[in-house]
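Please fill in the sequence for the structure shown.

STRUCTURE ENCODING:
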């Protein structure tokens, strides 16, 4: 006899079985990791013994519409109290869910997640303290809503301590570390970074200094050529945390030269990509859409760790490649040209991204040594002359 429900194995990368009852348009998670437990759960649902909004609710099922305009009760309630959440803030919180929270806790039952788990997870996140606090705020909203709906007895997120919001600067890669990660040979770098797409992405980031979100939003027709066939990029858009494509950080369009190595890698990647039309994203996901933010972050961390690069007491993330570009190009290009290429609005921001070594600082200052020596010698000579005059008078 045919069962009045369907049970599906966990999707790739997930642990919980899914189910579908008559009248449902899509599968939902059972929150169970064995088929027997999943079947028992679905039979209980079918018989009406319990509902899908009890303690058997998974985080993803509960937060499926959270921060979605027009569908989220939290947003509607805020609006009714004349305390509306801006579209930008809603998109940011939804991005926290999709990019960070769901991949780690989405298939877990709400009641099974502990405060210590969330606390440890936040500590280990490869994000700035400021961003971690934003993610914590999103968690607090979710747990408060779940408690208000009677799904949880305690709001465990409220007890998690906030992080020191002091800005922690990202570090730049050192010359030896750059050579460990980038060989200048396409096949070798594909092996290092795990795929042609990611090898091309990271090579582009370190040789152009563009932001990760700007790279994610690039299409093939953003690669242009001058009259004498020199390649360059037009940077006029960026992918946001919720994978929506919008304007660049300062809202301005800029042009960035393409080095021969980056141009070569892009050509090689285009030949292999399934999305090579002029309007296709250069670095898309398997469906041609915008990549998730954590794809680059996870790969970068795994690769530097595998390469033996010590990141203890350092903040090394994909954005470090922009700092690296700024650090090595500033002495060559000068502030004005560098600001035009990177899109920095001020010399102060360029200073923030510069990480000169002691040797490079010394080399820069040594060029002023002659002027300094000349000035001090004059002073010493005058002092020496005055001393001799005094001695002559005394004698």
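FILLED IN BY: designer on duty
SEQUENCE:
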């Amino acid at each position: 006899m045919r069962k009045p429900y369907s049970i599906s194995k966990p999707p790739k990368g997930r642990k919980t079985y899914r189910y579908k009852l008559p009248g449902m348009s899509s599968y939902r998670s059972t929150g169970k990791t064995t088929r027997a437990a999943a079947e028992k759960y679905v039979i209980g649902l079918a018989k009406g013994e319990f509902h899908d909004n009890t303690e058997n609710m998974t985080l993803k099922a509960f937060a499926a519409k959270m921060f979605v305009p027009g569908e989220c009760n939290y947003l509607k309630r805020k609006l009714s109290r004349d305390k509306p959440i801006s579209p930008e803030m809603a998109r940011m919180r939804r991005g926290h869910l999709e990019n960070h929270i769901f991949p780690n806790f989405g298939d877990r039952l709400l009641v099974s997640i502990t405060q210590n788990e969330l606390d440890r997870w936040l500590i280990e996140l490869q994000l700035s303290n400021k961003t971690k606090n934003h993610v914590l705020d999103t968690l607090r909203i979710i747990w408060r809503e779940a408690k208000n709906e009677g799904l949880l007895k305690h709001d465990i997120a409220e007890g998690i301590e906030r992080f020191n919001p002091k800005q922690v600067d990202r570090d730049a890669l050192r010359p030896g570390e750059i050579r460990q990660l980038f060989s200048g040979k396409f096949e070798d770098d594909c092996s290092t970074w795990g795929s042609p797409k990611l090898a091309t992405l990271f090579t582009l980031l370190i040789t152009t200094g563009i932001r990760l979100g700007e790279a994610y939003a690039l299409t093939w027709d953003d690669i242009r050529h001058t009259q004498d066939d020199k390649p360059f990029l037009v940077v006029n858009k960026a992918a946001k945390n919720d994978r929506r494509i919008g304007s660049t950080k300062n809202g301005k369009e800029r042009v960035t030269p393409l080095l021969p190595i980056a141009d070569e890698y892009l050509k090689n990647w285009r030949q292999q990509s399934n999305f090579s039309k002029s309007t296709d994203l250069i670095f898309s996901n398997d469906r041609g859409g915008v990549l998730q933010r954590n794809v680059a972050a996870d790969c970068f961390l795994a690769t530097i760790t595998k390469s033996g690069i010590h990141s203890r007491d350092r903040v090394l993330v994909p954005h470090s490649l922009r700092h690296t570009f700024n650090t090595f190009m500033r002495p060559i290009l000068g502030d004005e040209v560098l600001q035009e290429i990177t899109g920095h609005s001020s010399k102060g921001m360029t200073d923030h991204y510069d990480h000169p070594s002691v040797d490079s600082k010394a080399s820069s200052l040594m060029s002023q040594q002659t002027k300094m020596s000349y000035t001090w010698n004059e002073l010493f000579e005058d002092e020496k002359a005055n001393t001799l005059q005094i001695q002559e008078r005394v004698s």
